[in-house]
User: Which sequence fits this backbone?
């Protein structure tokens, strides 16, 4: 990632005071994200001014991000009355309110003499006749998509009051070939499905990747060497290492929120128990000790607790324990079985896979087990992962028969389910944190 | 051919050979393959083909279960007898699950099935140091369809011969 960091030295500079305009006065456009089934906000996103088609491509990425969120309804460009000639000029607000665009985005993309790209945007409230935000960013030209995601995040945050999630990536398993001999490769992509890159060759089965909190490492499980074990992959160097030296199969790895530990399951005979390994000292701590299958651990964002699944009661159910393994308590009590719990980055919810009545669902519940809500149900939905702002989930869906899985995203409200386009079959998505 | 000579020195081989000569016709009739596909060499007593066809290299499980069913016990009894007859073979037991479960649980479930199979063979005299286990979870189905007829074939433990250690 060092190369990426160097070339991707994106910095925001607040423009001069006149550009930033005044602080919001009253009755400004905003979205209440907490309401289920929000009416999407009509927003006009104009082509950014540029010497070539890059301006249109940048605004296209911004528009696609905002549209996919389900919270915004981009206005058809064919309806635009005013054509923005100079993004520094105050737009003719009546031209935009006339087509019911409650917010307006203008901007430009400039190739600087030193080779860098400068992207700037302004967000306008058309009914309040004022500018809500304006920023500019410098980066190298190949990072134009990332700048567009950062601008989309800024617009999302300004209009919803929540942090965005568009400048993030997803690590997943890319699948190809027949189901009985499926080739599986670790792959990484932007959250919108762009910039897919394979991380492993496909010679060995790889499963369940997870990002480290700093996005520089991925832990995953691989069958290389004939015994399935947990590995650590440095994204920058491609260097791989075995995690721990356990006697049996290790699987189901997850990072702690500080990135210093990996928790995982160790299989011994018929039992799987959860262990934590400190990545610096290599010291391991056993957290569960049952004659059952204890797996799929997930830390709470404050690092104090771990949710996991266990069949110690007969079927897979969700349990919460202290990060040291203390005080293990079952939290799921509904019909069916529960698995793959994932603690929200906001801490308020736990997402899970639920099997009931021959169907596989994705749902959420509070950490005390109350307030269960099912977001989507079907033949086979599995493995939720949270967007960094805790508002959206991705998961994979496996159709019946010989086909392969695909990744979908769904809003926390259960609305706005969408497929994430990938080059082939795709499973086991894991969403990255945002870069701070 | 070195394996042949090793086997030929083994008195048990002669006994098996006689047994095959007697029952050979009947068992061959039940084979789905044509004779050419099987070939002479692959029918060699003590070979992988012998094990797969005449003993049975796999057992099946009920949903979410690791219990050895009566039909599976019969297969494992035959496996144990065969492995006692050919003590040079090490084996790897591959545990598998059907697709109607979540990935990580299925990895553990496959491992549990392999462990149950290993324990059963141990109870029939196959020492643990001859046996390795591996779980493939739901990653390697043999049957692909969307109903119970496939899922029941995929919930399995397969005994793979790791090669005769002496050959």
Assistant:
């Amino acid at each position: 990632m060092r190369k990426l960091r160097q070339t991707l030295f994106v910095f925001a500079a607040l423009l001069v005071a006149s550009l930033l305009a005044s602080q919001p006065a009253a009755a400004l456009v905003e979205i209440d994200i907490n309401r289920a089934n929000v009416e999407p906000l009509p927003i006009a996103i104009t082509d950014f001014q540029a010497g070539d088609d890059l301006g249109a491509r940048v605004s296209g990425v911004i528009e696609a991000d905002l549209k996919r969120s389900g919270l915004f309804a981009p206005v058809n460009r064919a309806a635009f009355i005013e054509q923005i000639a100079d993004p520094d000029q105050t737009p003719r607000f009546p031209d935009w309110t006339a087509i019911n665009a409650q917010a307006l985005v203008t901007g430009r993309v400039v190739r600087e003499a030193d080779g860098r790209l400068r992207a700037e945007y302004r967000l306008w409230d058309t009914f309040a006749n004022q500018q809500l935000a304006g920023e500019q960013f410098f980066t190298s030209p190949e990072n134009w998509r990332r700048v567009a995601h950062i601008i989309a995040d800024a617009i999302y945050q300004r209009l919803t009051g929540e942090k965005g999630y568009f400048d993030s990536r997803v690590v997943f398993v890319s699948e190809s070939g027949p189901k009985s001999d499926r080739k599986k490769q670790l792959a990484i992509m932007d959250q919108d499905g762009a910039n897919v890159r394979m991380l492993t060759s496909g010679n060995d089965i790889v499963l369940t990747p997870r990002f480290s909190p700093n996005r520089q490492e991925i832990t995953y499980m691989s069958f290389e060497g004939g015994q399935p074990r947990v590995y650590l992959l440095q994204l920058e160097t491609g260097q791989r290492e075995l995690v721990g030296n356990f006697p049996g199969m290790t699987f189901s790895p997850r990072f702690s929120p500080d990135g210093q530990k990996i928790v995982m399951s160790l299989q011994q005979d018929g039992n799987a128990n959860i262990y934590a390994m400190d990545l610096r000292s290599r010291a391991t701590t056993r957290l569960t000790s049952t004659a059952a299958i204890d797996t799929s651990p997930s830390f709470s964002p404050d690092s104090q607790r771990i949710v996991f699944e266990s069949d110690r009661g007969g079927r897979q159910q969700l349990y919460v324990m202290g990060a040291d393994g203390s005080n293990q308590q079952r939290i799921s009590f509904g019909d069916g079985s529960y698995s793959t719990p994932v603690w929200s980055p906001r801490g308020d919810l736990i997402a899970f896979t639920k099997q009931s009545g021959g169907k596989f669902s994705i749902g959420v519940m509070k950490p005390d087990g109350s307030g269960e809500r099912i977001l989507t149900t079907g033949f086979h939905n599995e493995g939720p992962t949270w967007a960094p702002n805790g508002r959206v989930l991705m998961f994979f869906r496996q159709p019946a028969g010989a086909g392969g899985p695909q990744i979908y995203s769904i809003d926390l409200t259960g609305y706005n389910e969408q497929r994430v386009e990938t080059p082939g079959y795709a499973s086991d998505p894991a969403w990255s944190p945002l870069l701070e | 051919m070195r394996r042949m000579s090793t086997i030929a020195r083994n008195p048990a081989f002669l006994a098996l050979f006689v047994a095959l000569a007697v029952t050979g016709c009947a068992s061959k009739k039940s084979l789905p393959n044509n004779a050419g596909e099987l070939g002479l060499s692959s029918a060699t007593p003590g070979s992988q083909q012998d094990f797969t066809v005449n003993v049975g290299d796999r057992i099946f499980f009920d949903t979410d279960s690791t219990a050895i069913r009566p039909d599976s016990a019969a297969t494992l009894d035959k496996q144990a007898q065969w492995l006692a007859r050919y003590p040079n073979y090490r084996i790897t037991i591959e545990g598998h699950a059907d697709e109607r479960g979540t990935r990580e649980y299925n990895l553990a479930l496959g491992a549990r099935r392999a462990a149950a199979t290993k324990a059963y063979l141990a109870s029939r005299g196959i020492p643990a140091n001859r046996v390795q286990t591996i779980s493939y979870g739901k990653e390697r189905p043999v049957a692909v369809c969307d109903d119970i007829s496939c899922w029941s074939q995929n919930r399995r433990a397969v005994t793979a011969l790791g090669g005769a250690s002496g050959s």
Remarks:
- The two ends of chain A are 15 Å apart (CA to CA).
